[in-house]
Each structure stands twice: as C-alpha cells, then as structure tokens.
Amino acid sequence: MPRFFLDISYKGTNYHGWQIQPNALTVQEVLQDGMSKILKNKVEVVGSGRTDTGVHAVQQPVHFDFDLEMSKEDILHKLNGVLPQDIAANSIREVKPEVHARFDATERAYQYFINQSKSPFYENQSYQYTFDVDVQLMNEAAQNLLGEHDFESFSKVKTEVNTFLCTISKAVWFATDKQLIFEVRANRFLRGMVRALVGTLLDVGRGKLTAQDFVNIIEAKDRSKAGRAVPPHGLFLTEVHYPEDIYL
Amino acid sequence: MPRFFLDISYKGTNYHGWQIQPNALTVQEVLQDGMSKILKNKVEVVGSGRTDTGVHAVQQPVHFDFDLEMSKEDILHKLNGVLPQDIAANSIREVKPEVHARFDATERAYQYFINQSKSPFYENQSYQYTFDVDVQLMNEAAQNLLGEHDFESFSKVKTEVNTFLCTISKAVWFATDKQLIFEVRANRFLRGMVRALVGTLLDVGRGKLTAQDFVNIIEAKDRSKAGRAVPPHGLFLTEVHYPEDIYL
C-alpha cells in the first residue's frame, strides 16, 4: 500500500499531547478520527515524535498508508473541513513505502517563545517572563550545547531511553520586536529537554548561574543540577527534516 | 489636576468594542474599573478613538486626570495585576493638562491581518481568506487612496460626522512568511472604513474589480458601490501619534 507523509500544525492547548492515550483527548486521536472519516476506512497515523500536553507544532510530519482515490488537494480540503480549528493539515506527499516519520527524521527544530511584558495577544502561546535577562550571556552559555553530548541533566527522570546522547546543531537566542525566542536543532531530543534547557539558560541570563556553571551542569548528567523546566505553552515544534530521497 | 497618557493593548474578542455602553462589556469600562480600584477613586479615561466589537489594539492611548501618589511603575504593575489577561497597560507619561487623547492625535495606523490557509495559531486575530489574490494589483489600487479624499464610499451608513474627508498617508499591502497584511495610516478614519477598504481591495486582488473601478468607487461617495467589509477580528489599531510637545 502506498505511504504518504502529511504535515500538520496544531495548537496544543486543548490536547493531552500528541500520542494517543486512554481517557484523554490527543492530537493523534483527533487526526486519526478525521482521516478515517474522510477516507471511509480506519487509518493509523505515525508522528515524527511526541509533543507534551500544551506544546504546539508548526510542522509535525506523520505517515499513513492508504490507496488514495481522491487527489491530495481534495484530501487536504476535506480534512481541514472535519478537523477542529486548532489542527490544520498543510501538505501531503508520497514517500517510499519503507520510510518512517519517526525513525527516518534526521533533524528536529524547536522554538521557545517568551514575552517579557504582559501581552493580550499570545494566550497559551508564549511564556510571560518579566525578569531582565542578558541575552548575550545566554547565547554564550548555549554555545556549549553544540555537538554531541550526554544530556541526562536535561531529561525527565522517568523516561525509558537507551542513551541520553544527542547532537545539537543550533542553539541560539534571538529577539523580535515583542518576543525573546530560543531556537534549538538536534538529531533527537529527550523528554522535557528543551524546556529544561530554556529554564537553565534563563538562570544564566539572570545571573544566577555562570557560563561555567552551565558547562558543569551538562557534565553532571544529573537532572537535579539543572534549572526548572519552563511551562509547555511557549514551546513549538517548528521543523522536522528528512533526507531528500525519501520522496517518490 | 495633572493629566496622564496611558498606553494600553487589548484583544477585542471578548468586548463590545472600546466605548462604554449599557448592558455590554467594553474595554473602557473594564479599564476604568481597574484604575478606580487601584487608585481608590473613580477615574474616567478618554480613548484616542473607538474600536468596534472584536477589533484589537496594540496601542490605544487614553488620558486620565489624577493626583498620582504612586510611581508610574507601581501603577502599571498594579493595574496589570487587576486587569484581565486580554488587556495590558504598557506605559504612562504625563502630558500638559489641556491635551486630549482623541482631539490631539495627528495620525492613526491600522493593520489588517489575513491568513491564506487554515492556521491553528491566529484564533480571532487574523481573517482566513483562501482565494488567490494579486498583491501587486492591490497595491496599485491602494495608491489611489493617498492624500485627502472624501471616503463616504467606505463609511458605515449610519454615522454622524460633519465630513467624510480623511488624509491617508500610507496604504500598503505586504506579506510575511505566514500572513498578508494591509497597513493604512491617516489623520482620521470613518466608522468601518478600514474593513471596507480591505474588502474592496481584496476584490481588486481577485480580479473582480480593476484599479479604475476602485478609483470610481472612491469618487462615487456611495457605500453601496464598495465591497463587503471584512470581519473585525483581523483588525488591529497599531499606533496613534501626537505632537512631541504635548508631554511634560
């Protein structure tokens, strides 16, 4: 059966994260229900990765298998009609049948949004953090994240992984007119990792930790050494990359 | 009594516009209640102008008279504490006692936001309009708005004004990554004017009207000749300007 990649966006506020679970509404469940409805068959979707409760996605690629009889444009149009306003279907592209949305992803990017004064416009989509921070200090500390490191200090404690090794290719703070944004790219992320990184870097920005403290925290491989995780509602999964040769 | 300008922002979704009215919640009422609470005296605020139900403001200046005993920073902090999340107090500055937030404004700027595909992220803050439009054609037509004209064709019919003359100093469409934005600046605006302009310019962008039709509509001074008003939720009052010598 042909396999397709579908890119979706969602506002995570009303969902208990991406992954299906009993007794809680998730993005995966709502998407599967919508697709099964318009394709008139039970469809399973596999995401590029989980997002936690309240976390948003600008681009979450998912794969599904189906003998499409409609055009891709028709499917997107109908799917957006049945999906709620907080989930949007953006594009569909056929891939080789063995390609997997999770295992074949080569890079993932997240952005964390902070507003430093009260704003009416970012409800549940930006973290209001009013302390003064030194962005240059945070950027200097963040440079220590680049490359392959064991990031156990920034991983949720109760997690089942074989390794805490991740290779970070970008970790930078930048400011727009209204917001402070942390962008981070890596081959993989551990559970709660971006939110723990942001919380710890904010401690550097406020002068509670030095850049050397930050290096020591990475090397400690101990979650209790790092700062508090910032709340989920400022976090967006923004991009997931695959090799170009996955597409048909 | 000293007079102050207070700049506020608000998301208009939950309000029946700016101006106080019986039996409906308005931004002015909520702001006055909040200020009266923290200043422990009844305070009246006068805005730079009205905004309609559902319209937002990035910068709405208001004036009020009071013998301040707290610092401006304290007032902003306390005011933001009592105001709901969808109204933010941004700055306070003392002005000469005779300065008026509405009558002394020299320029007002609005932006209208359009998303051309479904998005989870702009709830009530952008108009989803999925037809293809030619932005260059819309910009060519918009240039005819510049200067002083009678804009009765773009004014709500039931309105009490002495004149429909407005001087428009900027009228331009531009695109960001995700949105199409119309920015317009003028010394004054008529009721419903920006939304009627945007609706009519979109008709130009879709090819339903030519640039010459647009000129004819301006000259007709007849609301029935112009296009439909676009919905209020894409509209933001973004800036209000005053002469520099109003401040103390």
Average pLDDT level of chain A: 96
Q: How many H/I helical runs of chain A?
A: 5
Q: If classified by CATH, what would the architecture of the largest domain in chain A be? A: 2-Layer Sandwich
Tally of distinct domains of chain A: 2
* Helicity range of chain A: 10-25%
- CATH level 3 topology of the largest domain in chain A: Alpha-Beta Plaits
Report the span from N to C terminus of chain A. Answer: 13 Å
CATH superfamily of the largest domain in chain A: Pseudouridine synthase I, catalytic domain, C-terminal subdomain
User: Would you list the SSEs of chain A in sequence order as H and E?
Assistant: EHEEHEEEHEEEHHE
SS strand fraction of chain A: 25-35%
Write down the overall geometry of chain A. Answer: globular
- Please tell me how large the radius of gyration of chain A is: 19 Å
The oligomerization state is: homodimer
The most extensive contact between chains is:
A-B, 19 and 19 residues
Major β-sheet profile of chain A: 10 strands, mixed
Helix/strand/pairing category of chain A:
alpha+beta
Broad CATH class of the largest domain in chain A: Alpha Beta
Count of strand segments of chain A: 10
> Which stretches of chain A of 5+ consecutive residues score pLDDT under 50?
none
